[in-house]
Amino acid sequence: MDAKPFNVLFLCTGNSARSVIAEALMNKEGQGRFQAYSAGSMPTGKVNPHVRPIVESCGFELSDFRSKSWDEFAAQGAPPLDFIFTVCDNAAGEVCPIWPGQPMTAHWGVPDPAAVEGSEAEIGAAFSETARLLGNRIRLFLNLPFASLDRMSLQTKLREIGSAQPTSAPIAP
Question: Which pTM value belongs to this model?
C-alpha cells in the first residue's frame, strides 16, 4: 500500500518565478512522494516566461502553472499542507494566513531572477542559477530520514537547509 504523499507549498510574493520553479522541481524530484504547489501573497497573475525552459526540463508545460494567491491554500477544501517554504525574503516577513493542520515551515530564500536586468543570456543564467539553488535545497530535503526524525529535529533540519550557503557566487545583475 502506497503512503499518502506529503503536500508542500512554496511561497513567494508574486508567485511568478521562484515559487513556480520550486513547485516544478519538487514535483519532478519528489517522484510521487511529495505533491508540490506554489502561491504568492500578492500574485502577479502570470508566470514569468523565463521559467519555461526550467519547467519544460522537468517534464511540464508552462501552462501547467499559474500565479495564484496563498489564500487558496488556507481555504476550506484546500489540500492539507505538511510543509511550507518561503523562497523570497518579502514573503518570509509577511503575516501569513493561518494554515490548517500546523504544517512545518522554513525560509529557503534565494535571489529573485526576475529582478535581473541585462541580455537574454544574463537573465536566463539568473533563472538557471535560481533553479540550481532551489534544486540543491529540495534534494537535501528529499534525502532527510523522515521516519527517524521527531518534529523538532525535522524543523531544525528544514531551517539548516534554508540557511545553507550556496556553492557558487550569488546572482549578479
Answer: 0.90
88 part of the active site: yes
The number of angstroms, rounded, from the C-alpha of 35 to the middle of its chain's C-alpha atoms is 11
State the cell numbers at 9.
507549498
12 catalytic residue (yes or no): yes
* Sheet containing 6-12, strands listed edge to edge, beginning at the edge strand earlier in sequence: 34-40, 6-12, 83-86, 104-107
User: Residue 47 in contact with residue 78, Cβ under 8 Å?
Assistant: no
5 DSSP β-pair partners: none
> Active-site residue 58, yes or no?
no
Higher pLDDT: 25 or 76? It is 25
Residue for grid cell 519528489: 30
* Domains of the chain, CATH where assigned: 6-163 (3.40.50.2300)
